[in-house]
Amino acid sequence: MSGGCPVRGGSPTGVDEPRMLLGTPEFAADPHGAYEGMRRDHGAMVPIELSPGVPATLVINYRTALRILNDPEHFPADPRIWQETIPEDSPIRPMMQWYPNALRNSGAEHVRYRQAYVASIDGIDLHAVHSTVEAIAGPIIESLAGIGTADLVSQYALPLVFEALNQLVGCSADIGQRVATGMAALFDTVNAAWGMQTLAEALLELIALRRAEPGDDVTSRMAHHAAALNDEEMLYQLVSFYGAGIEPMQNLIANTLLLMLTDDRFGGDVLGGSLSTRDALDEVLFNDPPMANFSISYPRQPTLVEDTWLPANQPVLISLAACNNDPEIAGGDRTGNRSHLAWSAGPHACPARSVAYLVAQTAIDQLLDALPDLQLAVPKHEISWRPGPFHRAMVALPVDFPINPALRAV
Fold first, then answer.
1. Do the beta carbons of residue 298 and residue 78 sit within 8 Å?
2. Beta strand pairing status for 45-51 and 20-21?
């Protein structure tokens, strides 16, 4: 890997190639078909657009991805130089711009932020998480049981994940509701500024409360960590915690439920020889990870990787989905194999994988134990996927089941 050669044009290969736009309905409908075409036409490094006029490179080779993810010196995560070239109203800017948190920094600042972030997560009691998710799931399932139909994305996975995160963070019901309102508006391009203000006000109130009255929660541990984060730094660690938790965990639960409801290998019980919920989670993390294309870095100078020149300060994304299914490493029975990149790798690897696994597995097991006759309400091919360059997310997961108004969750 070396740098210094000027790059002609705006593409990795130095010629003005057409770029695939990732955030289209066509891509969302068949991403694996798109990855196969990319591999055939471009090899390991693919010229893409994240939105119209925003070029980037997508890495679809597993070994190349590991090389990049483990080389923060050449591939730092700080986007500040890049974002100067992006319009303020670009739809992908809020997701990618710089914040004072671990995700968007490199070097000493990244180390400082990540130490506080990891310590706050490592203090989570996993036994308590299991009980917490059970307690959250019960009333949600009871509310659905008398209806006989549900969208498991909006009516189960999302509210469960959000309430679990609120409890991990140490939010009161009042603050948690304002966080929910702000987060929802943040993703609405019309009300994004108001949403960010609402979210920030709620979280700053939480930070002040936990500085004064610490408890056994993520915010308290972060607020009293030796890294001595100020209120703004605390705010953006918490925004990152919610951002990394809500969308990915909601998608992981929903995508795994879709697999388990449509694949006979996951029927019956484990003792009967069927595969377990954990096996299903790992299969989804290989094939349809909730964040399909992410782990963004920005080479500081033109950099040669696999005979391809990457332009300076242009985003390089890892296709976690494509790399997991790279023909060089795929094949055979992957049951029990957790070598996928769904949690990323290197210094920015997800520090909350044990918590995420537990929340998702408990949520799925509670639902399927309580509603064993759950079935998909539409043919699998009619499921719609939300367009977007980063996530792998269903619009809805409609299901039917026998009405049981007297149900009490298992």
1. yes
2. parallel
Q: Judge contact between 375 and 399, C-beta under 8 A.
A: yes
Q: C-alpha distances in angstroms, 178 versus 163, 172, 187, 203, 204?
A: 12, 10, 15, 9, 12
Strand partners, 308: 305
Query: Which backbone phi and psi does 50 adopt, to 5 degrees?
Result: -80, -35
Q: What are the structure tokens assigned to 318, written together?
A: 């890892």
Q: Which amino acid appears at position 292 of this protein?
A: A
The CATH label, of 1.10.287.80, 3.40.50.2000, 3.20.20.70, 1.10.630.10, for the domain at 2-170+215-400 is 1.10.630.10
Q: Which residues contact 53 (CB under 8 A, 6 or more apart)?
A: none
Q: Give residues with Cβ within 8 angstroms of 6, minimum separation 6.
A: 302
Segment among 30-34, 177-181, 202-206, 378-382 with least mean pLDDT:
177-181
User: Which whole number is the average pLDDT over 282-305?
Assistant: 94
Angle value at C-alpha 353, between 349 and 355, nearest 5 degrees: 145
Q: Write the DSSP string, 354-380.
A: HHHHHHHHHHHHHHHHH-TT-EESS-G
Name the phi and psi angles at 58, rounded to 5: -110, 125
DSSP string covering 333-346: --TT----STT--G
Place of tokens 């020149």: 309
Token representation of residue 221: 């541990």
Q: Where are the domains of the chain?
A: 2-170+215-400
Cα 30-15-29 angle, rounded to 5 deg: 5
Q: Which two tokens stand for residue 313?
A: 């300060």
For residue 92, give every residue at least 6 positions away whose Cβ sits within 8 Å of its Cβ, in sequence order, or none: 50, 51, 54, 86, 389
Beta bridge partners of 359: none
User: Locate tokens 């539409």: which residue?
Assistant: 378
DSSP 54: E
How far apart CA 235 and CA 20 sit, in angstroms, is 35
Beta bridge pairs of residue 399: 150, 376
Q: Which two tokens stand for residue 14?
A: 């130095």
Structure confidence at residue 114 (pLDDT): 96
Say if residues 2 and 310 touch (Cβ distance below 8 Å). no
The DSSP secondary-structure symbol of 15 reads: S
Q: Model confidence over 18-59: pLDDT tens digits?
A: 899 988 999 999 999 999 999 999 999 999 999 888 999 999
Type and span of the H or E element at 406 = none
β-strand pairing of 375-376 with 2-3: unpaired
